[in-house]
């Protein structure tokens, strides 16, 4: 389940300490500045240079710098987004999935600030002896669908009804 636009907005504002300006999330994030500030709060120095220009290619550079930093931070490629998804408003759902994933990664990494999304489970490495591994390989053949010759003969409603 993905988070809503308002949850994303509130979390970004809480982490960065700055109010987002604009009528919707796409407009608020389109220049990439808020996203760069967000990732730099979670992982200082992730984006070295944030472009403050109104020129489209500079804004797209910010967005690209954020997505690359998010990937390095631990956001899987399947949960990240392409620059045009945000800049041209082609897929805001994917942008929100990325922000949600970033929130989960922050919690996993021990970020103690505002939370977004559910905490990811920690891996629990199991150690098995060779005897336990070998025991798991043995499956008796009678447990694999053997029914001792049973059939559906005599069961009503399965094609063996008499015609009158």
Keywords:
single chain, 164 residues, Actin-binding Protein, T-fimbrin, domain 1, mainly alpha
Kindly state the number of beta strands: 0
Oligomer: single chain
CATH class categorisation of the domain at 5-108 = Mainly Alpha
What's the pLDDT, averaged over the residues? Answer: 86
Structural class: mainly alpha
Q: Write the CATH architecture name of the domain at 5-108.
A: Orthogonal Bundle
Mind telling me the CATH superfamily name of the domain at 5-108?
Calponin-like domain
Label the overall shape: elongated
**Number of helix segments?**
7
* CATH-derived topology of the domain at 5-108: Actin-binding Protein, T-fimbrin, domain 1
SSE order in H/E notation? HHHHHHH
Distance between the termini: 56 Å
Describe the main β-sheet briefly: none
> Which stretches of 5+ consecutive residues score pLDDT under 50?
none
Percentage of residues in helical conformation: 40-55%
The Rg value, from CA coordinates, equals 27 Å
Hey, roughly how much beta strand do the residues contain? under 5%
Describe the 3D structure.
- The protein is mostly helical and 164 residues long.
- It contains seven helices and no strands.
- It has helices at 5-16, 25-29, 33-42, 56-73, 83-87, 92-108, 130-137.
- The longest helix has 18 residues, at 56-73.
- It is elongated, with a radius of gyration of 27 Å.
- It starts with a helix and ends in a 27-residue tail after the last helix.
What is the structure about, briefly put?
It contains 7 helices and no strands. With 164 residues, it is mostly helical. Helix 3 runs parallel beside helix 4 (56-73).
């Amino acid at each position: 389940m993905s988070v809503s636009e308002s949850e994303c907005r509130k979390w970004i504002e809480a982490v960065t300490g700055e109010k987002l300006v604009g009528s919707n999330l796409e407009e608020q994030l389109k220049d990439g500045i808020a996203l760069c500030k967000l990732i730099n709060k979670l992982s200082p120095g992730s984006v070295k240079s944030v472009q403050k220009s109104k020129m489209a290619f500079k804004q797209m550079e910010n967005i690209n710098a954020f997505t690359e930093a998010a990937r390095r931070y631990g956001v899987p490629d399947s949960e990240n987004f392409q620059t045009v998804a945000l800049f041209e408003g082609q897929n805001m759902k994917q942008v929100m999935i990325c922000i949600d994933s970033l929130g989960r990664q922050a919690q996993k990494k021990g970020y103690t600030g505002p939370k977004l999304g559910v905490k990811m489970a920690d891996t629990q490495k199991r150690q098995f002896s060779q005897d336990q591994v070998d025991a798991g390989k043995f499956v008796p053949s009678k447990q694999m669908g053997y029914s001792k010759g049973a059939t559906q003969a005599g069961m009503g409603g399965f094609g063996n009804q008499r015609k009158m």
